[in-house]
């Protein structure tokens, strides 16, 4: 079964991974049997990483109860999320990174000449840097620490499980420390895999995709912080020159993405307080992962391809109408079907347990306290926060109005339903009861567990409503 290993490096990598999880939960077409997220971040307490890990765990909890075949119409959570055998919270362990850099390189025991060389390569701040929360925008430090990739147990586990037909995708930013350092080193270790590894030939020739996220946010000035937004562009330019000569040719499909609108975040060097709002660039980077996965093997051969993403019409807050038709056609139905699904569960399900559809699939009140439903509810809370953060950021993404309790048929920003308006409401064709009517119409008894019956019914019904109304 074909797998896609997704290395998410640094805070940006984890936030992209979170967006990808929400895209996959909605059933956006993704032609892989499973994804295996591998998070690389020395900051164990990073708030962005913690949120992503929780999203992935809830996804797994939901997915393990579901079956997928031609007999099961449900596409929500279709792609399986796996993890490496010995990984904790999807993370590849970076050893000895919770010390000061000078201790890591054993500076005090270097001879005079090597101390002099280290002082040329690294500033005093570099040498005294506490790496417990990452590399704070210093790829020169990160490149030394992360060069241990190939010796880690996580990398060994990845190599051992990699088989013919599998793919690799690497997510990183180019303007910080962890991502800028980690991407080239990880790629080098894959393309020059040790012959001691059983899969070394497969790794050297594996289909590899990568996205490098250029500056898309800034940080507020803070004299006490080692992170300085004024260095982002110069670091990016230097890294792009290196990527052009030493990286791009080793990747089958390379994606670049950036935005000229940059909001300044709080200057948090890491730890639990680092919880950046979800951003459009992360959403689009998730689409890049899916684009790579959906690219045929034939189109990955030959000359290495570099891709960028564009919008059809400029706006400080994007909706479906700002995307080119090819993007909109991939996203509109699955994302809107899931939005309706979440809306019904949050606002209508508990009061409709006596309706025909509930009786047909044997849906009872105790289902709402089951482990499956509680995981789904927790996942949907993360999903709602994600949508809100996307809409509040700069540049924003406001696909939906995000108002619980409103007429759901008017919740897709900038797009009115067919047969809507006052006449439609008077005829009962443009109100929330239409969702229940569709559930009643589609409900049938099946010899499946309640979780499959539930998801099959809701996927089919919400998809039918989206097709009918839009």
Automatic annotation (TrEMBL):
It comes from the Bacteria. It comes from Profundicola chukchiensis. This is Uncharacterized protein. InterPro entries: Tubulin/FtsZ_GTPase_sf.
């Amino acid at each position: 079964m074909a797998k896609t290993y997704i290395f998410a490096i640094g805070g940006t990598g984890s936030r992209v991974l979170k967006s990808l999880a929400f895209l996959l939960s909605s059933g956006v077409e993704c032609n892989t049997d499973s994804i295996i997220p591998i998070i690389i971040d020395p900051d164990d307490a990073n708030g962005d990483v913690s949120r992503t890990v929780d999203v992935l765990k809830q996804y797994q909890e939901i997915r393990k109860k579901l079956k997928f075949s031609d007999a099961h119409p449900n596409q929500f959570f279709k792609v399986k999320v796996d993890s490496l055998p010995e990984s904790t919270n999807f993370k590849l362990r970076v050893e000895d990174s919770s010390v000061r850099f000078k201790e890591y390189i054993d500076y005090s025991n270097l001879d005079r000449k090597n101390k002099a060389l280290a002082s040329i390569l690294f500033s005093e701040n570099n040498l005294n840097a506490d790496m417990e929360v990452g590399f704070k925008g210093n790829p020169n430090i990160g490149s030394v620490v992360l060069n241990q990739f190939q010796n880690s147990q996580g990398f060994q586990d990845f190599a051992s499980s990699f088989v013919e037909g599998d793919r690799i995708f690497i997510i990183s930013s180019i303007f910080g420390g962890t991502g800028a350092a980690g991407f080239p080193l990880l790629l080098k270790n894959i393309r020059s895999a040790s012959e001691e590894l059983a899969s070394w030939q497969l790794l050297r020739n594996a289909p590899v995709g990568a996205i490098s996220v250029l500056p898309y946010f800034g940080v507020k000035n803070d004299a006490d912080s080692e992170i300085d937004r004024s260095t982002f562009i110069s670091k990016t330019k230097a890294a792009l020159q290196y990527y052009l000569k030493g990286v791009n040719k080793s990747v089958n499909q390379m994606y670049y993405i950036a935005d000229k609108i940059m909001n300044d975040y709080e200057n948090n060097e890491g730890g639990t307080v680092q919880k950046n709002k979800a951003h459009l660039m992360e959403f689009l980077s998730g689409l890049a992962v899916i684009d790579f996965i959906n690219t045929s093997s034939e189109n990955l051969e030959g000359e290495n391809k570099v891709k960028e993403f564009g919008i059809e019409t400029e706006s400080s807050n994007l909706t479906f109408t700002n995307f080119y038709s090819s993007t909109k056609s991939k996203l509109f139905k699955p994302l809107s079907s899931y939005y309706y699904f979440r809306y019904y569960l949050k606002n209508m399900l508990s009061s409709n347990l006596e309706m025909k559809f509930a009786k047909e699939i044997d849906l009872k009140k105790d289902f709402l306290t089951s482990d499956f439903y509680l995981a789904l509810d927790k996942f949907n809370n993360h999903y709602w926060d994600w949508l809100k953060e996307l809409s509040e950021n700069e540049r924003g993404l406001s696909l939906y109005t995000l108002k619980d309790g409103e007429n759901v048929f008017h919740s897709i920003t900038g797009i009115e339903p067919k047969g809507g308006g006052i006449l439609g409401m008077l005829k009962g064709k443009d109100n929330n009861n239409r969702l229940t009517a569709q559930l009643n119409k589609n409900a049938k008894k099946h010899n499946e567990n309640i979780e499959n019956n539930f998801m099959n019914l809701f996927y089919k019904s919400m998809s039918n409503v989206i097709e009918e109304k839009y």
